[in-house]
Amino acid sequence: MNGKVVAVAGATGVVGRQMLLTLEARNFPVSKIKMLASARLKGRTLPFKGEEIPVEVLGEDSFEGVDIALFSAGGSTSTTYAPAAARAGAVVVDNSSAWRMDPEVPLVVPEVNPEAIKRHKGIIANPNCSTIQMVVVLKPIHDAARIKRVVVSTYQAVSGAGSAAINELREQTRALLDEQPYPPKVFPHQIAFNCIPQIPQSGAFGDNGYTSEEMKMVNETKKIMGDASIAVTATTVRVPVIIGHSESVNIETAKKLTAAEARALLAAAPGVIVEDDLDHQRYPLAVNAAGKYDTFVGRIREDISHPSALDLWIVSDNLLKGAALNAVQIAEHLL
Ligand SMILES: NC(=O)c1ccc[n+]([C@@H]2O[C@H](COP(=O)([O-])OP(=O)(O)OC[C@H]3O[C@@H](n4cnc5c(N)ncnc54)[C@H](OP(=O)(O)O)[C@@H]3O)[C@@H](O)[C@H]2O)c1
């Protein structure tokens, strides 16, 4: 297969670095790689396949000759530069939320709606991290029993807020253990030894009391699943975990599914690993999911308060399936 010219916008960020590692690990056919970031630290290099590649400053003219542009440099950067990349002939896979709800832009999780990819007009959106891991599990259940309503609460890792947030959790934890003060900078409150029910940390609450992360889970789920009738409510919470988002999900279905039926459906679903052995205290854990490509599901049980609903615990690496891996999978479909 001919190699592609691939640009990674935001290559120096936590997601960008995982994109580079994922392209390498999956042997994506790259003939040339362009690393793009801000002018913040000029002269940097980043390793790719054993070579040190200089990081270039992202600009309108960065995409000449580029086939695939993976964007992970924030919403305003994508709003400005993704159309320029598409005009230059690249197909953009964008990790930010800038284009996700644009009706002209496919929002894709390859295990759920790969057919949407071919409708692209130069930009394809990668969904929100918490939504991706939830829909890979919802899809087989919806196909078998039609989902009516989803109630989700998330336990989201700090890496979802970028490298500065990881540093804050590490440094604040160390400071507090040493009984030193560490005022929050990235988060609105102390994140070490705490849970914060506000994602994104800088975002305002909507008139309905929901955060934008919660509304992403509501709206993106309907768009990816291609079914606006699925009712979704979400509470998104930041927890002091570095990598791996966990979710408690209650799913009401039109047709009753037993826990055993749900387990069998999920065991056969692409990208999903059932980890559900209560006798041996086995269930998905963020520390085990970190670094893995799959989405893990366990604690699968019938909701005792409802005639036709299930409770599940879903865990995945937010930087991989929640971001870099999903984007690279989309790029693989483009090949
Ligand atoms: N973390 C996650 O789990 C996750 C999941 C899904 C989607 N995303 C999305 O992915 C994007 C990046 O997130 P992250 O977690 O990797 O953040 P991050 O660690 O803070 O990295 C941000 C990256 O964007 C670059 N950047 C920022 N402003 C720029 C500008 N004006 N021009 C060019 N490059 C610029 C930075 O370059 P410098 O090094 O030069 O500053 C860096 O490479 C965001 O849109 C985020 O919403 C993140």
What does this structure look like?
The protein is of the alpha/beta class. It has two domains: 4-127 and 323-334, Rossmann fold, CATH 3.40.50; 131-318, Dihydrodipicolinate Reductase, domain 2, CATH 3.30.360.10. The chain is 30% helix and 24% strand. The protein has helices at 14-25, 75-87, 129-145, 163-177, 212-225, 259-267, 286-289, 320-334, and strands spanning 4-9, 30-37, 45-48, 51-57, 68-71, 91-94, 123-125, 147-156, 231-238, 245-253, 272-274, 295-302, 309-316. The strands form two sheets. The chain has a seven-stranded mixed beta sheet, with helices on both faces. Strand 12 and strand 13 form a beta hairpin.
Name the descriptors:
seven-stranded mixed β-sheet; 2 domains; 335 residues; alpha/beta; binds NADP nicotinamide-adenine-dinucleotide phosphate
CATH architectural group of the largest domain: 2-Layer Sandwich
Beta strand %: 15-25%
Average pLDDT, all residues? 97
The residue fraction in helices comes out at 25-40%
Count the domains: 2
Entry summary:
With 335 residues, this protein is of the alpha/beta class. 30% of the residues lie in helices and 24% in strands. A hairpin with a 2-residue loop joins strand 3 (45-48) and strand 4 (51-57).
Task: List the SSEs and their pairings.
Layout: E1 4-9, H1 14-25, E2 30-37, E3 45-48, E4 51-57, E5 68-71, H2 75-87, E6 91-94, E7 123-125, H3 129-145, E8 147-156, H4 163-177, H5 212-225, E9 231-238, E10 245-253, H6 259-267, E11 272-274, H7 286-289, E12 295-302, E13 309-316, H8 320-334
Parallel strand pairs: 1-2, 1-5, 2-4, 5-6, 6-7, 8-9, 11-12
Antiparallel strand pairs: 3-4, 8-10, 10-13, 12-13
Helix pairs in contact: 1-8, 3-5, 3-8
